[in-house]
Amino acid sequence: MIIDQGNPEYLIRINMQTVDIADACISVLDHGFLFGDSIYEVVRTINGSLFAWDEHLRRLRNSAERLGYKLPWSDMELTLEIEKVVELAGWEEESYIRIIVTRGVGRIELSPETCDSPTLIVIAKKLPLVPDELYDKGIVLRLTEIRRNSRLAMDPAIKSGNYLNNVLAMIEAREKGADDAVMLNENGFLTESTTSNFFIVKDGVLKTPSLDCGILAGITREYLLDAVRRKGIPVEETELTVDDLGHADEVFITGTIKAIVPVRKVIGQVDWEGKPGVVTSRIREAYLEATGLG
């Protein structure tokens, strides 16, 4: 769905030191590698400046707190590090920046007591592009058999690097001819896509799963909801069923890199077909205007 601009060059820093891609390594005893014990954020630039960095930093710290990480870096140190990455990259194009924090090196045991210091990894590349035709025509989603992680198990509100649930959903979607997936929670309510928040439009009202449904509080989601409310478009954060999806007028997904992408078809447990609609277009315009992307 997203294409890179040619052969992307990567800028990689580990623990605030620049390394060549061939030397970009962590220990096999790092719990991020051993147990998927890591958190992350993806940030983009707009006109060369970090977009919504304060919100991403706040969410990173929330994820760390939820998992019991003790981050040794201040907000200022992390901010200067990410700004330095953008400066070192020096691309004319916009930047995609992935910030990863692992639990760190410890013994091969589930207890993190022997992990003394987290590992900080920052990977930057030129911002991938979403083809214009996807905005014009929309994508295909599959309502998968894979359920979203329960909030009582691995809470999706924690932006963890442990993504196997989403990987399985994407595999099923691609094998069935879809671009991406949308998942239900353990109670049968709609949640989110593999890396995106999920929205429907019905009778002019924008509807999206509430945080209580077990979703990530997306940064783009929050900017969009704020922009839409200021435009006077009715919004409901609620529990959405498969039947709600089946009777939707419009469907779209959102994310940091892709912004707002309309859906033209949903397959799987429900058959829905539509096209990018008037309300989705208004919402996309409001979001682009509010963020300076327009």
Please identify, by name, the CATH architecture of the largest domain: Alpha-Beta Barrel
Name the CATH superfamily assignment of the largest domain.
D-amino Acid Aminotransferase, subunit A, domain 2
Q: Helicity range of the residues?
A: 25-40%
CATH class of the largest domain: Alpha Beta
Question: What percent strand?
Answer: 25-35%
Helices and strands: which structural class? alpha+beta
Shape: globular
Record keyword descriptors for this entry.
six-stranded antiparallel sheet, 2 domains, 294 residues, D-amino Acid Aminotransferase, Chain A, domain 1, nine-stranded mixed sheet, 8 helices, D-amino Acid Aminotransferase, Chain A, domain 2, alpha+beta
Structure characterization notes:
The chain has helices at 31-35, 53-67, 75-89, 132-137, 164-175, 219-230, 242-246, 278-291, and strands spanning 11-14, 17-19, 38-46, 49-50, 95-102, 119-126, 139-143, 180-184, 190-193, 197-202, 205-209, 235-238, 250-255, 259-268, 272-273. It has 294 residues and is of the alpha+beta class. The strands form two sheets. Strands 7, 8, 9, 10, 11, 12, 13, 14 and 15 form a nine-stranded mixed β-sheet that branches. It is built from eight helices and 15 strands. The chain has two domains: 11-126, Aminotransferase class 4, branched-chain amino acid transferase, N-terminal domain (D-amino Acid Aminotransferase, Chain A, domain 1), CATH 3.30.470; 132-291, Alpha-Beta Barrel (D-amino Acid Aminotransferase, Chain A, domain 2), CATH 3.20.10.10. The two termini are 21 Å apart. Helix content is 29%, strand content 28%. Helix 6 (219-230) crosses helix 8 (278-291). The longest helix has 15 residues, at 53-67.
